[in-house]
Design goal:
Blueprint (H helix, E strand, L loop, with lengths): L1 H28 L4 H30 L5 H26 L6 H13 L19 H96 L4
Helix pairs in contact: 1-2, 1-3, 1-4, 2-3
């Protein structure tokens, strides 16, 4: 309803601008314009009623939350433009014989807009177009639920990653403890090995000394024996 009403209102405003231009051309040629004047006056009344209807429909759509406040403000700006155009067209209609720049600019702008999408539809999402407030709210709740489910899944993944990180950290701590124990064991073994090596060296030196003493004693005994042995 809003879209078709806005379209028809814009078409009426365009038609009024064209009729005013045509009337002014007739006036310059000295032709009668009574019929055109009556037609323009009727179109201006129709334009006024259409704008009033748009105001009512927009107010109802905003108050019942059929559209968002942001969309309501945007459409209000479009409606304000129509109201301004209505006032300027009325002023041009009363200034008979004059063709202000408003008429020419209005015609040019409307010609440029022909074939373009209805601006009343701009920024209205495809998903919510034509839906009532309850349907839009249900759709939003569904989107929120899907987002919550996605966040829950993401939270679960993050929790698992955190748990895996903690387990890896614990495993590294245990490995570090094992490495420390091995290092201590190697150090102790090395110290014992050095101690045993020193002991072996001492034993070797003692063994060598004892062997030399035994040899000397044996030589002395031999000398003594030779000295006291009869020489027959």
């Amino acid at each position: 309803m809003l879209f078709s009403t806005y379209d028809s209102t814009c078409q009426i405003a365009q038609e009024i601008a064209e009729k005013i231009q045509q009337r002014n051309q007739y006036e310059r040629k000295g032709e009668k314009t009574t019929k055109l004047t009556v037609t323009i006056r009727a179109l201006l009344q129709n334009l006024k009623e259409k704008i009033a209807l748009l105001k009512d429909l927009l107010l109802r759509a905003v108050s019942t939350h059929q559209i968002t406040q942001l969309e309501g403000d945007r459409r209000q700006n479009l409606l304000d433009d129509l109201i301004t155009r209505e006032r300027l067209l009325l002023a041009s209609f009363k200034n008979e014989g004059a063709e202000p720049d408003l008429i020419r600019s209005s015609l040019m702008s409307e010609e440029a807009k022909r074939g373009a999408p209805n601006p009343w539809l701009f920024e209205e999402p495809e998903e919510t177009r034509g839906l009532g407030f309850d349907e839009i709210r249900q759709q939003q709740q569904k989107i929120i639920q899907e987002q919550d489910a996605g966040l829950d899944a993401l939270s679960s993944i993050i929790s698992r990653q955190k748990q895996m990180g903690q387990e890896i950290g614990n495993e590294l701590d245990e490995q570090n403890e094992i490495i420390d124990d091995l290092a201590n064991l190697v150090e102790n073994t090395d110290e014992k090995l050095r101690t045993e090596t020193r002991r072996v060296n001492m034993v070797d030196r003692k063994s060598t000394s004892c062997g030399m003493i035994m040899v000397i004693l044996l030589l002395l005994v031999a000398i003594v024996v030779v000295a006291v042995w009869p020489t027959n």
